Amino acid sequence: MGSCNRMIGAKCAVLVAGFVAALACAGCTSQQERVRPPYASGESRLVGGGLKIEWEAPERGTVYLVEHRTGKLIQTFTLQPGQVYQFSVESVVQADDLETLLGIGVDKAEFLLYFKPAGAKEPAVRPGEPSQG
């Protein structure tokens, strides 16, 4: 009976190790992809960041300003080709307003600007299926 219990224990250990490895692989998307909000997925791309951003749209599309640590959407604008998007934190009042919105200090915030061209296609993902692996 003792050798049978050892064999069952060994099989359980292998099964548990396989399960842990599967769970580890299930979360293998990059840190940036995990934080990237759903509305900035697909053909969108990171085009700027920081406390002062000035970026010119190469084509018609939408920009999304997101705070990286909290994942909160700060601004959304539709831009035409050549139109310039500007963002900056230049006053104590602006900083206080952002801190209230974000729940963290502006000094800890990491603002990222995403651009999604007009007509960009979304990736085909079936319900319950991870988008990246």
Name the features:
single chain, 133 residues, alpha+beta, 2 domains, two-stranded antiparallel ribbon, 3 helices, 27% strand, disordered C terminus
What does this structure look like?
The structure is a single chain. With 133 residues, this protein is α+β, with helices and mostly antiparallel strands. It has two domains: 1-29; 36-117, no CATH class. Helices cover 31% and strands 27% of the residues. It is built from three helices and six strands. The strands form two sheets. The protein has a four-stranded antiparallel sheet with strand order 1-6-3-4, with no helix packed on it. A two-stranded antiparallel ribbon has the order 2-5. It is globular. The two termini are 42 Å apart.
Structurally, the number of domains stands at: 2
| Unreliable runs | 12-33, 129-133
Task: State the end-to-end distance.
Answer: 42 Å
Could you describe the largest sheet, including whether it forms a barrel? 4 strands, antiparallel
Oligomer: single chain
Biggest sheet strand order reads 1-6-3-4
Mean pLDDT: 75
What's the order of the H and E elements? HHEEEEEHE
Topology, number of strands = 6
Q: Can you give me a brief rundown of this structure?
A:
The chain contains three helices and six strands. It is an alpha+beta fold and 133 residues long.
List the helices and strands and how they pair.
Layout: H1 2-26, H2 31-35, E1 45-49, E2 52-56, E3 61-67, E4 73-79, E5 84-88, H3 92-102, E6 111-117
Antiparallel strand pairs: 1-6, 2-5, 3-4, 3-6
